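input
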Amino acid sequence: MRDELLQLLLVVPVTERRMLNGVRRWEDGVQRKLDVLANVATVVACCIVSYVLLTRSAAPPMSSADYKAGEQMDKLRDVDYSQAAQTLVMFVRSSCHFCTESMPFYERVAISHAHTSGHLHIVALTGEPVETTAKYLADHSVAIDQVVPIDSNGSRFTGTPTLVLVDRNGTVTHAWRGKLNEERERELFQLLGDSVAVSSLRAWNATGSAD
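output
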């Protein structure tokens, strides 16, 4: 009887250790799964944040921007829409890489504007100090007529770059947001008129430059 009791006393601790080891292995398995889920969640969150930041800084070309055709353009400081047949408003920011990538096209538009009179008025709208944007455009050889500060209380511009074409009555005719593809670039040149597009292409070819 005494031997049987001793064997029983020896078996019980062994069984407990096995149970504890099993619990620890289960806990380790659960922890590894939680770590994997946490890593996946972190990656997904980073992707979402990156997407939101990119789309806010400059969305892809869209048929509808902050302004739509037929709407009345907001009054911008010291800008007189009646002084030209069309006014092109460019909302840009020096830290926007889509703006920088669009500069060669903006330069061609500016060149076309330089060879016309009373047809196109180009205005750069900025949320930065005017001097910063003026230097930014000048560094990329984009010659425009005005740089004006954005009115946070009255403007609907939300993303850069944004282009809005306005007639002499202050009515929006077309609007684009984001870096324009080749089709949109051709569309804008056509809207500016054949003479503008032709003069731009001739001037651009004369420089021997290319995109």
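quick obs: Residues 52-64 have pLDDT under 50 and may be disordered.
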